[in-house]
Amino acid sequence: MASKGNKRATSAAPPAPATKKVKASPKKSSLKEAVQASPKKATAKKIVEATPSVFAGIITALETVEHLPERCREMLVALVEPSLSTPKTERHASQTLGVAMIEETLQEIKAKQTQAIEQAQKELSVLEQSKESRAASVSEAQADFASKEETEKAKQSARDEADNVVKEAEATLADAKAVEVEGKKPLAKLEAEKATLAKISEEHVKLPMDANEGPHYSELEPHIASLGLDESLAIALPSSCAKTKEQRGGFDDVVLEQLVKALADKIASLASAIEVEVPKVEEQKAAVSSAEVALEGKATSANATAAELEAATAARLESSASLSMATQELEALAPSIQEATAKVEELSSVLKAFEAGALATFQSYQNKAAPMEEAAPAGA
To answer: Of 194, 210, 197, nearest to 259 (Cα)?
Structure first.
């Protein structure tokens, strides 16, 4: 009867196919020979179905290796169960080679996953740097907008103040013109009265008397009261005016002489009053001119503040547009950053799962030792 050690050695050796007997050789067998020597020459799917679940993760990982030809993947998958199930000290050369190739392939998978994480992290870092840059641009745009807004408010206040000053200047000019208009009335009245009396004196007193006629009382009558004649003279005046030079007596001549004198005095008095009023009117006229100049200056200043306000408003609108654009550009990065972050997390999760699953399983079986033989019962 064969010993237990002999039985394990026999079971560890690869089974021979029905058509060809494989002889043990001290030389290292090739991977292809190992697969050909296995009775499980089938597709990877069938092998997975026939493989214990402990190696399922390794096989699944090997099946995802894209850089290997399909036949190579099938060979590696076929070697998983017989190679890793066999203790390290009992593996024949083809199994040892298979374990080495499986390890190399798994390490390549890990390296590629690590490289993918690093690349994804670089992409995320670039996006985050871009986010910082755009956030700084937003801050600058916000500060610029705040400054432009304050400038616009200041220009608006200046414009409002200038408009008020213009309104005040307009009111001042209106008042000056009103004073001028009222101021001209006394002068105009005096000038009109003087002109009327001068005309009466010339046309209705002097000319008729030069023609030996009497003054035209009908023209004089409306103005008799303003001449300041003595009452008795005023009463006698109509009779004296109705007489020709030949018909007049001494009293009539006195009455007419007083009339001429009264007219002359009145005209002279009016002239003096006019001389007093003229400077007043000129002063009022100058006040109007000064108010017009002041209004023009204030209107020019108001127009300048209006232009400054318009420019400030345009600058604020432009700054607002820049701020909006900077904000949109910053917000536009959010989906990309979320996607890149999710990608890093997903790849990291895949790597952790791979390390904790397929790679850990492989490493636990890679250097698997044969179980110690139990002591034989007494008398065996």
So the answer is: 197
Specify the higher pLDDT residue, 153 or 66.
Answer: 153
Cα separation, 126 vs 122, whole angstroms: 6
Interatomic CA distance for residues 345 and 320, integer angstroms: 38
The full length of the chain comes to 380
**Residues 337, 340, 346, 351: is their CA dihedral positive or negative?**
negative
Question: Residue 368 and residue 340: Cα distance in Å, rounded?
Answer: 40
Enumerate domains of the chain plus CATH numbers: 30-128+342-366 (no CATH), 150-336 (1.10.287)
Q: Tens of pLDDT along 289-319?
A: 999 999 999 999 999 999 999 999 999 999 9
Q: Give SS3 for 213.
A: coil
0.70 surpassed by pTM: no
Cβ-in-10-Å burial (0-12, 13-18, 19+) of 21 comes to exposed
Torsion of CA 323, 326, 332, 338, to 10 degrees: -110
Residue 236's contacts (CB-CB under 8 Å, 6 or more residues apart) are 251, 252, 255
User: Directed axis angle between helix 70-85 and helix 93-199, to 10°?
Assistant: 120
pLDDT at 43: 44
Per-residue pLDDT tens over the stretch 93-135: 999 999 999 999 999 999 999 999 999 999 999 999 999 999 9
The pLDDT, as a whole number, for residue 52 is: 53
**Angstrom distance (rounded) from CA 240 to CA 253:** 8
Which among 116, 89, 88 is positioned nearest to 103, based on CA atoms? 88
| Separation CA 42–CA 17 (nearest Å) | 13
As a whole number of angstroms, the distance between CA 42 and CA 56 comes to 16
